[in-house]
Structures are given as C-alpha cells and as structure tokens.
Design a protein that fits this description.
Number of helices: 5
Strand content: 15-25%
Distance between the termini: 34 Å
CATH topology: Glutaredoxin
Radius of gyration: 15 Å
CATH class: Alpha Beta
Shape: globular
Number of domains: 1
C-alpha cells in the first residue's frame, strides 16, 4: 500500500487542536486547522501541508454511495490523479463507535489494502469534531483547499447523486474539474455542489 504503513491495531481517536473549531467552513475563507491521527497512530495536521492543494474526503465503508465509487475504482482513480498533480488527499472517517462505518485501525488498514485506496492518509475523527466543524453531512463529502489554505470547493464528488456505478461514466467529476481549472489558473466554475450519500454517523 503506497504511503500508508502498518497499523498499531489499536483504536485511533480524534485529536482536536486546543483552539475550538469554528462551525461549518465557507468557500473563500482560510480552512480551519485540525489535528487527527492516522492508521499508524501518527498525528497529522492540516497546516503541515500548506503550500499544497489538499482534498478532504469523508468516508464510510458501509455506505452504498461510497461503495459505488470504490468498487468501481472511481474514487481510487480520482485519488491517484489528484496525487499525481502534487495534491495531498486526506480520507476522514467520522463514524462513531458502535455506528455504521466505524473501524479499528486494523480494520481500516485491511480495507486500504483490499481496495487499494490511494489516499495520502486515512484519518480517524471518532468524536466528530472535525466533521462537524466542516459541516460534513454525507459520505462521500468532498472539500478542496488550495495551497494558501483557502477552501475553494465543497460538495459531491460528481453530479450524479445515485448509488448506481453505471452513472459514473456520464458524470462530471467535480473534484477533477476543479483541480484542472486550478492548474490552468481559471476560476473554479463549480465551487459548491450538493453533497450526496449516507449521513455521517456522528456520535450522539
């Protein structure tokens, strides 16, 4: 598995910054910094990637909409294409313990290997602090942050809000579209779209 290493096998908990996260992030503003732990138990901080484009992807392996994009290979292809352009891809799991999508570190590592997930890091947000701060409502829910730390896109991965893999071929991939426009120096034509999928299974 590329850039994702062996796991401790213990439960990984979300670690927030001392400063409280603000409510729901808005396009055109500096993205709120955060710290989460990855499958290795290593702390990953958003601001450490300043200077690079960062994609945030909310993930729940039990969601049929997530399965649509992973079982077809569409999400992995999108991850790979983004990283080939120098972007950092952070997959975030905000599923609370006892709810759909929650995984132990060992379970997440097995899934990463089985599905050949191409993320830069797989992060745990068990308490839902970061997900709620960003207003993540669905899995998947996508965000793009530019090199200056500004949120420039949020919404669905594409414009076909179904769980049917056959729809992918006719879909506009909003993430790849935004990255292409950013690379060309153009204004992002679709900077916000309706996210679709399963609701994020936050802690009560």
């Amino acid at each position: 598995m590329r850039n994702l290493f062996s796991v401790t096998g213990t439960m990984i908990a979300a670690v927030s910054l001392a400063t409280p996260l603000a409510a729901a992030q808005k396009n055109g503003t500096i993205s709120q910094d955060f710290k989460l732990t990855d499958v290795n138990g290593k702390t990953v901080q958003l601001s450490q990637f300043r200077g690079k484009t960062v994609i945030l992807e909310w993930h729940n392996p039990g969601c049929p909409f997530v399965a649509k994009h992973y079982n077809s290979g569409n999400m992995q292809a999108t991850q790979k294409a983004a990283r080939q352009q120098g972007a950092i891809w952070l997959t975030i799991n905000s599923g609370a313990k006892g709810k759909q999508g929650h995984m132990t570190g060992a379970e997440a590592t097995a899934l990463i290997d089985r599905q050949d997930i191409q993320s830069s890091n797989y992060l745990f947000d068990t308490k839902g602090v970061v997900g709620k701060a960003y207003g993540a409502r669905t899995t998947p829910h996508m965000y793009i942050i530019d090199g200056e730390g500004i949120l420039v896109y949020q919404g669905g991965i594409d414009d076909k809000p179904t769980a049917n893999p056959a729809d992918i071929k006719q879909a506009r991939n909003h993430v790849l579209g935004a990255l292409k426009e950013m690379k060309s120096g153009d204004t992002i034509s679709i900077a916000q779209s309706r996210p679709y999928g399963c609701s994020v299974k936050y802690a009560s």
